[in-house]
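User: I'll paste a sequence; please echo it back and then give the predicted structure.

Assistant: Echoing your sequence first, then the prediction.
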Amino acid sequence: MAGASLLALIDDIASILDDVATLTKVATKKTAGVLGDDLALNAQQVTGVKADRELPVVWAVAKGSLRNKAILVPAALLISAFAPWAIVPLLMIGGAFLCFEGFEKLAHRFMHSKADDDTEHARLVEAVADPAVDLVAMERDKIDGAVRTDFILSAEIIAITLGTVAASPFPTQVTVLTGIAIIMTVGVYGLVAGIVKLDDAGLHLSRAQGGPTASVERALGRGILAAAPWLMRALSVAGTAAMFLVGGGILSHGVGVIHHWIEGVAHDAGMLPGVGAIAEALTQALLNAGIGILAGAIVLAAVSLLRRVLPARAGVH
Protein backbone atom coordinates (compact mmCIF):
# COMPACT_ATOMS: atom_id res chain seq x y z
CA MET A 1 0.00 0.00 0.00
CA ALA A 2 2.81 2.39 0.94
CA GLY A 3 4.57 1.65 -2.35
CA ALA A 4 1.36 2.20 -4.30
CA SER A 5 0.73 5.47 -2.43
CA LEU A 6 4.28 6.63 -3.19
CA LEU A 7 3.86 5.80 -6.87
CA ALA A 8 0.51 7.62 -6.93
CA LEU A 9 2.13 10.66 -5.29
CA ILE A 10 4.98 10.62 -7.81
CA ASP A 11 2.43 10.32 -10.64
CA ASP A 12 0.46 13.29 -9.25
CA ILE A 13 3.62 15.38 -8.94
CA ALA A 14 4.67 14.46 -12.48
CA SER A 15 1.20 15.36 -13.76
CA ILE A 16 1.31 18.74 -11.99
CA LEU A 17 4.80 19.46 -13.33
CA ASP A 18 3.66 18.54 -16.82
CA ASP A 19 0.68 20.91 -16.49
CA VAL A 20 2.98 23.65 -15.18
CA ALA A 21 5.41 23.17 -18.07
CA THR A 22 2.61 23.25 -20.65
CA LEU A 23 0.93 26.31 -19.14
CA THR A 24 4.27 28.11 -18.80
CA LYS A 25 4.96 27.54 -22.51
CA VAL A 26 1.49 28.83 -23.44
CA ALA A 27 1.87 31.88 -21.17
CA THR A 28 5.34 32.60 -22.59
CA LYS A 29 3.96 32.56 -26.15
CA LYS A 30 1.06 34.84 -25.20
CA THR A 31 3.36 37.34 -23.48
CA ALA A 32 5.85 37.43 -26.38
CA GLY A 33 4.45 40.76 -27.56
CA VAL A 34 5.08 42.41 -24.23
CA LEU A 35 8.52 40.77 -24.03
CA GLY A 36 9.63 42.22 -27.38
CA ASP A 37 8.46 45.66 -26.39
CA ASP A 38 10.01 45.30 -22.93
CA LEU A 39 13.39 44.54 -24.51
CA ALA A 40 13.30 47.54 -26.83
CA LEU A 41 12.03 49.95 -24.16
CA ASN A 42 14.53 48.94 -21.50
CA ALA A 43 17.46 48.96 -23.91
CA GLN A 44 16.47 52.50 -24.92
CA GLN A 45 16.21 53.58 -21.26
CA VAL A 46 20.00 53.48 -20.83
CA THR A 47 20.60 55.79 -23.80
CA GLY A 48 22.69 58.68 -22.54
CA VAL A 49 24.21 56.74 -19.62
CA LYS A 50 28.01 56.52 -19.59
CA ALA A 51 29.37 53.16 -20.78
CA ASP A 52 30.80 52.16 -17.39
CA ARG A 53 27.40 52.77 -15.76
CA GLU A 54 25.24 50.87 -18.26
CA LEU A 55 25.34 47.49 -16.50
CA PRO A 56 24.78 48.97 -12.99
CA VAL A 57 21.74 50.83 -14.35
CA VAL A 58 20.37 47.65 -15.97
CA TRP A 59 20.94 45.77 -12.69
CA ALA A 60 19.14 48.50 -10.71
CA VAL A 61 16.16 48.35 -13.07
CA ALA A 62 16.16 44.53 -12.90
CA LYS A 63 15.94 44.70 -9.10
CA GLY A 64 13.07 47.17 -9.45
CA SER A 65 11.38 44.77 -11.86
CA LEU A 66 11.63 41.95 -9.31
CA ARG A 67 10.04 44.23 -6.70
CA ASN A 68 7.25 45.03 -9.14
CA LYS A 69 6.55 41.36 -9.74
CA ALA A 70 6.72 40.64 -5.99
CA ILE A 71 3.71 42.97 -5.73
CA LEU A 72 1.90 41.89 -8.89
CA VAL A 73 2.07 38.09 -8.47
CA PRO A 74 0.38 38.00 -5.02
CA ALA A 75 -2.16 40.56 -6.26
CA ALA A 76 -2.97 38.32 -9.25
CA LEU A 77 -3.35 35.27 -6.99
CA LEU A 78 -5.70 37.20 -4.68
CA ILE A 79 -7.80 38.22 -7.69
CA SER A 80 -7.90 34.61 -8.89
CA ALA A 81 -8.94 33.38 -5.43
CA PHE A 82 -11.49 36.03 -4.45
CA ALA A 83 -12.57 37.82 -7.65
CA PRO A 84 -12.13 35.42 -10.60
CA TRP A 85 -14.83 37.34 -12.47
CA ALA A 86 -12.32 40.22 -12.76
CA ILE A 87 -9.81 38.21 -14.82
CA VAL A 88 -11.51 38.67 -18.21
CA PRO A 89 -12.10 42.44 -17.75
CA LEU A 90 -8.48 42.85 -16.64
CA LEU A 91 -7.30 40.93 -19.70
CA MET A 92 -9.45 43.13 -21.93
CA ILE A 93 -8.02 46.26 -20.30
CA GLY A 94 -4.51 44.87 -20.71
CA GLY A 95 -5.18 44.03 -24.37
CA ALA A 96 -6.59 47.50 -25.03
CA PHE A 97 -3.58 49.07 -23.34
CA LEU A 98 -1.21 47.00 -25.49
CA CYS A 99 -2.99 48.19 -28.64
CA PHE A 100 -2.96 51.78 -27.37
CA GLU A 101 0.78 51.65 -26.72
CA GLY A 102 1.44 50.14 -30.14
CA PHE A 103 -0.67 52.72 -31.98
CA GLU A 104 0.85 55.57 -29.95
CA LYS A 105 4.27 54.43 -31.15
CA LEU A 106 3.06 54.40 -34.75
CA ALA A 107 1.56 57.86 -34.34
CA HIS A 108 4.79 59.17 -32.79
CA ARG A 109 6.81 57.70 -35.64
CA PHE A 110 4.71 59.47 -38.27
CA MET A 111 4.23 62.73 -36.35
CA HIS A 112 7.89 63.24 -35.33
CA SER A 113 10.61 63.64 -37.91
CA LYS A 114 14.04 62.03 -37.78
CA ALA A 115 15.45 65.49 -37.12
CA ASP A 116 13.43 65.66 -33.86
CA ASP A 117 14.79 62.30 -32.74
CA ASP A 118 18.36 63.30 -33.67
CA THR A 119 17.97 66.54 -31.71
CA GLU A 120 16.79 64.65 -28.61
CA HIS A 121 19.68 62.19 -28.91
CA ALA A 122 22.18 65.04 -29.29
CA ARG A 123 20.71 66.71 -26.18
CA LEU A 124 21.25 63.54 -24.15
CA VAL A 125 24.83 63.12 -25.37
CA GLU A 126 25.59 66.78 -24.58
CA ALA A 127 24.09 66.42 -21.10
CA VAL A 128 26.30 63.42 -20.34
CA ALA A 129 29.40 65.32 -21.49
CA ASP A 130 28.54 68.45 -19.46
CA PRO A 131 30.38 68.39 -16.08
CA ALA A 132 27.74 70.72 -14.60
CA VAL A 133 25.01 68.12 -15.06
CA ASP A 134 24.21 66.01 -11.98
CA LEU A 135 24.81 62.58 -13.49
CA VAL A 136 23.73 60.79 -10.30
CA ALA A 137 20.32 62.51 -10.41
CA MET A 138 20.03 61.90 -14.16
CA GLU A 139 20.83 58.22 -13.69
CA ARG A 140 18.35 57.93 -10.82
CA ASP A 141 15.63 59.54 -12.97
CA LYS A 142 16.32 57.05 -15.76
CA ILE A 143 16.14 54.12 -13.34
CA ASP A 144 12.88 55.38 -11.78
CA GLY A 145 11.35 55.91 -15.23
CA ALA A 146 12.41 52.45 -16.39
CA VAL A 147 10.98 50.81 -13.24
CA ARG A 148 7.65 52.62 -13.75
CA THR A 149 7.56 51.43 -17.37
CA ASP A 150 8.43 47.92 -16.22
CA PHE A 151 5.53 47.94 -13.74
CA ILE A 152 3.03 48.52 -16.55
CA LEU A 153 4.59 45.89 -18.82
CA SER A 154 4.93 43.42 -15.93
CA ALA A 155 1.27 43.94 -15.05
CA GLU A 156 0.36 43.07 -18.64
CA ILE A 157 2.52 39.93 -18.53
CA ILE A 158 1.04 38.79 -15.20
CA ALA A 159 -2.53 39.54 -16.36
CA ILE A 160 -2.08 37.52 -19.57
CA THR A 161 -0.48 34.66 -17.63
CA LEU A 162 -3.29 34.74 -15.06
CA GLY A 163 -5.83 34.40 -17.86
CA THR A 164 -3.93 31.33 -19.10
CA VAL A 165 -3.92 29.54 -15.72
CA ALA A 166 -7.26 30.82 -14.35
CA ALA A 167 -8.91 27.38 -14.51
CA SER A 168 -5.91 25.53 -13.03
CA PRO A 169 -5.45 24.46 -9.38
CA PHE A 170 -4.02 27.09 -7.03
CA PRO A 171 -0.56 25.44 -6.67
CA THR A 172 -0.23 25.40 -10.45
CA GLN A 173 -1.20 29.08 -10.63
CA VAL A 174 1.44 29.96 -8.02
CA THR A 175 4.15 27.95 -9.81
CA VAL A 176 3.38 29.27 -13.30
CA LEU A 177 3.00 32.92 -12.25
CA THR A 178 6.20 32.79 -10.19
CA GLY A 179 8.06 30.97 -12.95
CA ILE A 180 6.96 33.44 -15.63
CA ALA A 181 7.89 36.39 -13.37
CA ILE A 182 11.42 35.02 -12.84
CA ILE A 183 11.93 33.85 -16.44
CA MET A 184 10.78 37.14 -17.91
CA THR A 185 12.91 39.24 -15.55
CA VAL A 186 16.09 37.20 -16.05
CA GLY A 187 15.47 36.84 -19.79
CA VAL A 188 14.61 40.47 -20.48
CA TYR A 189 17.33 42.10 -18.41
CA GLY A 190 19.95 39.53 -19.38
CA LEU A 191 19.27 40.31 -23.04
CA VAL A 192 19.10 44.06 -22.34
CA ALA A 193 22.53 43.86 -20.69
CA GLY A 194 23.86 42.06 -23.76
CA ILE A 195 22.27 44.53 -26.16
CA VAL A 196 23.56 47.68 -24.45
CA LYS A 197 27.11 46.28 -24.37
CA LEU A 198 27.09 45.19 -28.02
CA ASP A 199 28.68 48.44 -29.17
CA ASP A 200 31.43 48.13 -26.56
CA ALA A 201 32.14 44.56 -27.67
CA GLY A 202 32.20 45.66 -31.31
CA LEU A 203 34.53 48.57 -30.53
CA HIS A 204 36.89 46.26 -28.60
CA LEU A 205 37.01 43.73 -31.45
CA SER A 206 37.46 46.43 -34.11
CA ARG A 207 40.68 47.56 -32.35
CA ALA A 208 42.25 44.08 -32.26
CA GLN A 209 45.98 44.15 -32.96
CA GLY A 210 48.36 41.31 -33.82
CA GLY A 211 47.67 37.60 -33.85
CA PRO A 212 46.47 35.39 -36.69
CA THR A 213 42.79 36.27 -36.14
CA ALA A 214 43.16 40.05 -35.72
CA SER A 215 41.77 40.89 -39.16
CA VAL A 216 38.78 38.60 -38.59
CA GLU A 217 38.17 40.15 -35.16
CA ARG A 218 38.33 43.68 -36.61
CA ALA A 219 35.89 42.75 -39.36
CA LEU A 220 33.56 41.13 -36.83
CA GLY A 221 33.78 44.22 -34.59
CA ARG A 222 32.91 46.55 -37.47
CA GLY A 223 30.00 44.27 -38.35
CA ILE A 224 28.68 44.37 -34.76
CA LEU A 225 28.96 48.17 -34.66
CA ALA A 226 27.05 48.43 -37.93
CA ALA A 227 24.40 45.90 -36.85
CA ALA A 228 23.72 47.22 -33.32
CA PRO A 229 21.50 50.17 -34.36
CA TRP A 230 19.59 47.92 -36.77
CA LEU A 231 19.05 45.39 -33.99
CA MET A 232 17.47 48.08 -31.81
CA ARG A 233 15.19 49.16 -34.65
CA ALA A 234 14.25 45.55 -35.42
CA LEU A 235 13.40 44.93 -31.76
CA SER A 236 11.25 48.03 -31.67
CA VAL A 237 9.38 47.10 -34.87
CA ALA A 238 8.92 43.46 -33.79
CA GLY A 239 7.74 44.58 -30.35
CA THR A 240 5.17 46.98 -31.81
CA ALA A 241 3.86 44.39 -34.27
CA ALA A 242 3.60 41.78 -31.53
CA MET A 243 1.67 44.21 -29.32
CA PHE A 244 -1.02 44.49 -32.00
CA LEU A 245 -1.05 40.72 -32.51
CA VAL A 246 -1.29 39.89 -28.79
CA GLY A 247 -3.54 42.81 -27.84
CA GLY A 248 -5.84 42.26 -30.80
CA GLY A 249 -5.96 38.54 -30.06
CA ILE A 250 -6.99 39.18 -26.45
CA LEU A 251 -9.71 41.64 -27.47
CA SER A 252 -11.08 39.43 -30.25
CA HIS A 253 -11.25 36.42 -27.89
CA GLY A 254 -13.14 38.54 -25.40
CA VAL A 255 -15.82 39.52 -27.93
CA GLY A 256 -17.58 36.37 -29.14
CA VAL A 257 -18.89 37.83 -32.43
CA ILE A 258 -15.47 39.04 -33.54
CA HIS A 259 -13.77 35.83 -32.41
CA HIS A 260 -16.17 33.61 -34.39
CA TRP A 261 -15.90 35.87 -37.45
CA ILE A 262 -12.09 35.66 -37.41
CA GLU A 263 -12.23 31.89 -36.94
CA GLY A 264 -14.64 31.58 -39.88
CA VAL A 265 -12.52 33.69 -42.24
CA ALA A 266 -9.34 31.86 -41.17
CA HIS A 267 -11.06 28.49 -41.65
CA ASP A 268 -12.06 29.48 -45.20
CA ALA A 269 -8.46 30.52 -45.92
CA GLY A 270 -7.34 27.15 -44.57
CA MET A 271 -9.27 25.42 -47.37
CA LEU A 272 -6.81 26.68 -49.98
CA PRO A 273 -5.01 23.69 -51.54
CA GLY A 274 -1.34 23.26 -50.66
CA VAL A 275 -0.98 26.34 -48.44
CA GLY A 276 -4.07 25.91 -46.26
CA ALA A 277 -2.33 25.67 -42.88
CA ILE A 278 -0.07 28.66 -43.58
CA ALA A 279 -2.93 30.71 -45.03
CA GLU A 280 -5.15 29.97 -42.01
CA ALA A 281 -2.49 30.98 -39.46
CA LEU A 282 -1.49 34.07 -41.44
CA THR A 283 -5.10 35.18 -41.93
CA GLN A 284 -5.86 34.81 -38.22
CA ALA A 285 -2.71 36.74 -37.26
CA LEU A 286 -3.44 39.56 -39.73
CA LEU A 287 -7.05 39.90 -38.62
CA ASN A 288 -6.01 39.97 -34.94
CA ALA A 289 -3.41 42.61 -35.79
CA GLY A 290 -6.06 44.60 -37.68
CA ILE A 291 -8.37 44.47 -34.66
CA GLY A 292 -5.44 45.58 -32.53
CA ILE A 293 -4.63 48.55 -34.77
CA LEU A 294 -8.28 49.63 -34.87
CA ALA A 295 -8.64 49.31 -31.09
CA GLY A 296 -5.38 51.21 -30.56
CA ALA A 297 -6.59 54.06 -32.79
CA ILE A 298 -9.90 54.29 -30.90
CA VAL A 299 -8.23 54.27 -27.47
CA LEU A 300 -5.61 56.83 -28.54
CA ALA A 301 -8.34 59.12 -29.91
CA ALA A 302 -10.29 58.81 -26.64
CA VAL A 303 -7.16 59.48 -24.53
CA SER A 304 -6.19 62.48 -26.69
CA LEU A 305 -9.71 63.90 -26.31
CA LEU A 306 -9.58 63.47 -22.53
CA ARG A 307 -6.19 65.18 -22.38
CA ARG A 308 -7.67 68.18 -24.13
CA VAL A 309 -10.94 68.29 -22.19
CA LEU A 310 -9.58 67.80 -18.65
CA PRO A 311 -7.04 70.70 -18.72
CA ALA A 312 -9.74 72.92 -20.21
CA ARG A 313 -12.11 72.10 -17.35
CA ALA A 314 -9.33 72.60 -14.81
CA GLY A 315 -8.75 76.05 -16.28
CA VAL A 316 -12.41 76.96 -15.89
CA HIS A 317 -12.43 76.17 -12.18
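The chain is about 85% helix and 0% strand. Residues 2-239 form one domain.
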